[in-house]
Every structure is written in C-alpha cells, then in structure tokens.
Write a structure and sequence with these properties.
By secondary structure, the protein is α+β, with helices and mostly antiparallel strands. Helices cover 45% and strands 13% of the residues. This is Site-specific recombinase IntIB.
C-alpha cells in the first residue's frame, strides 16, 4: 500500500497521478481519478493516456506480470507442485 501511495504522490507531483474510471463515475466525480482511494494497489510501471479524456495516468499491473512473478517465486521457493494466482486465491479462501 505504501509503495502504491508513493507512486501516486510522485505522479501527482508530475501532474499525472490519475487512474481510469468508468465513464459514469468520471462524469459524476470529475476529480475522483486523482484521489488515493481510487488508485490501484498494484499500479502499472508505465503510464498511458486515457483514450477518452487524453489525461495521463496509470492502469493496474497486467495479469501476465503477476503470473510471471508467482511462477518465479514458486521456482525460487523450490515448490515442485504447480502453483498459480488462482491456487493462491483458493488457498486463501480455504485456510
């Protein structure tokens, strides 16, 4: 959480600390895209322009990046069984 807030603060200082909100929310709350509560917990390393507004901001980290990270952690931990993000989800819900 602290890392996400630090990234957001740096982005705000650069004038780009915004996320993409659904169209109805963006219209109803025009400045909500810069509020910390709306920021992604796992922000993307890259910024991009919102195709609707042209504003620059961050999207969430891609699923593929998370998938690769989990696979790497599994290998480094020496776990032979297959483990995926979905496996972690079920483990959390079960235990």
């Amino acid at each position: 959480r602290e890392r996400a807030l630090a990234v957001h603060a740096a982005d705000l200082a650069a004038g780009t600390g915004r996320v993409f909100l659904p169209h109805a929310l963006a219209r109803k709350y025009p400045n909500a895209d810069a509020v910390p509560g709306w920021q992604y917990l796992f922000p993307s390393a890259r910024q991009s322009a919102d195709p609707r507004s042209g504003r620059w901001g961050r999207h969430h980290v891609s699923e593929e990046i998370l998938r690769r990270a989990v696979a790497g952690w599994r290998r480094r931990a020496g776990i032979a069984k297959p483990a995926t993000c979905h496996t972690l989800r079920h483990s959390f819900a079960t235990h």
